[in-house]
Amino acid sequence: MTTLIKYRRIVSDSWQLLGMGEADLPAELPLAGDLIIPLTLWRERHTLLTGRTGRTGVWLEPSDDPAELTALPPLPPLIAVRFPAFTDGRGYSTARLLRSRYGFTGELRAIGDVLRDQLFELARCGFDAFALRADQDAEHALAAFDDFSEAYQAAADRGPLFARRFQAAATTESEVSR
Fold first, then answer.
1. How far apart (Å, rounded) are the C-alpha atoms in residues 57 and 36?
2. What is the C-alpha separation between 136 and 133, in angstroms, rounded?
C-alpha cells in the first residue's frame, strides 16, 4: 500500500496500480482487491470485470480520450490520470472534462510525475487524490493547497472571482434590506 493525499489528508491506499507496461499486465485479473487498470485493458475486458468482487478503477494516459469511459457504463469508482512528466499539462484538461462534461463524481487521482507545486492547480481542475512522486514529502506537500488565498479564473472547484464577488454583494444587500 502506498501513501497518498486524498481530500487534503494523508491516507493509506488500498488500490493496486496494474500494467504500467504491456509486459506488466497479468493474463488473468485477480477477483479480489481494488485494482487500477489501463484504459486499454478496461476496453478489452469490460464485460469480464463485472465478476470481480474487488473494485476496478481505470488510469488514463495523456493521449487517452476520457469519452471512451462513457461508452462503457457505468463509470468506474476511481479514475487515475497519469502525468508522465510534470511539464505535461494534458491531464489537467482530462480532469476538467471528466468533472464538467462527463459528470464524474468518483475519486479522481493524479499519478506519475506529481509534485507539490502542482497540487493547488490539480485540485482546481477536479483532482481529489494525489499519488506524489517518490521523492516528494507528503507532509510538506499538504501546505500547497493553501499557497494562494484566491483564484481569479473559473475551474471545477468554483466560478470566476467576479461572479463570486457579485453573488456575495447581492447576498449582503439582500440581507441588509430585510
1. 4
2. 6
Q: How far apart are CA 109 and CA 119, in angstroms?
A: 11
Q: Which residue has the cell 481569479?
A: 152
Confidence (pLDDT) at 22: 53
- Strands laid side by side in the 56-60 sheet: 9-12, 3-6, 129-130, 107-112, 78-83, 56-60, 34-38, 15-17
Render 1-68 in DSSP notation, one character per residue: --EEEETTEEEE--EEE--SSGGG--SS--SSSEEEEEHHHHHHHHHHHTT-SS-EEEEE-TTS-THH
- Residues 83-128 have pLDDT tens digits of 999 899 999 999 999 999 999 999 999 999 999 999 999 999 999 9
Grid cell of 83 as nine digits: 502525468
Q: Which residues contact 30 (CB under 8 A, 6 or more apart)?
A: 52, 54
The answer to whether the bond into 38 is cis (omega within 30° of 0) is no
Distance CA 142, CA 121 (A): 13
